[in-house]
Amino acid sequence: MRSIALLFFWLLVTTGCPAPRPPARPTQPPNEPGQTEPRPGSPQIAWKRVQTVADVPPAPAPGTYQVHMIDVGTGLAILVRGSDFAMLYDAGTNDRGEKPLRVVAYLAATLGPSGDDLCVDGGAPPVTRVKLPHVVLSHPHLDHASALDLVVHCYDIANFWDSGSINETVFYRELMSGIARSPTIAYHTAASPTDDRAISIKGTAIALPRWDRFSEGDTVQLGEGAKFTILHAEGKKLGDFNQNSVVLAVELGGAKLLLVGDAESGERKDPSYPVGDVEEHLVSQYPQLIRSDILQVGHHGSKTSSRRGFLEAVKPRVALVSTGPKMYGKVTLPDAEVIEELKHVGATILRTDEHDASCPVSGRIGGDAGPGGCDSWVLTITRAP
Fold first, then answer.
1. pTM of the model
2. Which pLDDT band, with edges at 50, 70 and 90, does 384 fall under?
3. Domain-located, residue 30
């Protein structure tokens, strides 16, 4: 018997197949509301599901922070708030039944209504405009950007952060045209400005006079006790826009949030395979900065991301999985193997796809049509005493 076991082990090693891992212990779904186990000297992180306007908490008090994972169906939208700032990281969906108004309605419920009649689904239009200091587009894919042109139209954005890689599509052209028309937006990318500070998308020249370049390692102050550091910045066009994902390490009063967009390790493989691509870059170059309390799970929980080596380096207490019913190729995300790896590192997993088939409530923020709006989550971070 022992000789058979040794032979099996030898075959695993010589063929390069990943070694099997014991299954994670079963975990219960997160409590509503719930919170992480208290750690001496560590910020407290609590969470609750948001479905209707009544579920939205008030603005965070000084010394506390909020991270909202907005349920947009198959896509990603993350709102980060402090008492003196707000930042939106991505806002898009791949679902035909989802409208950009889902995100704008959520912003109206949290930051306040803003804009004109295009910014509401019936009823009286807003009478004021609200400031949104920072908007970040991790990379120019539809499921991360489809709502951003409406956000740009409805809110007074001060800073728009973009990879700089150009997607020759109508939605990206409309987004960049809106940024160019805005009198308030400073445009920041990983790409150097052209001599005439203009880009061309689908034959349309778009001038961006307030354009500057950012680099890896740059740190931006968000508000009191809050800042982000850019860990990955790539403006040139690569084989896949996922490789352009702008990765941010966000510090929120002692807690750390890692926003990775669709940063990957390579092809779809079991998480036990070695890290590669952007994840390998993060692990090798920023091992301390990627260690985080909260992780936005890369590429909606796909096996292209979240290699075991990466997750063990991040060691998240809470994992945010934003996904929905639309298939990526032949796969509906998240992959079960990624969920198991997240359990192995001890993360509480919050997902936006729990009630895609049937939402038990009516009056969802942004309307009851489409798969989104039923499983948004808000995390509240309170500084350690």
1. 0.93
2. confident
3. no
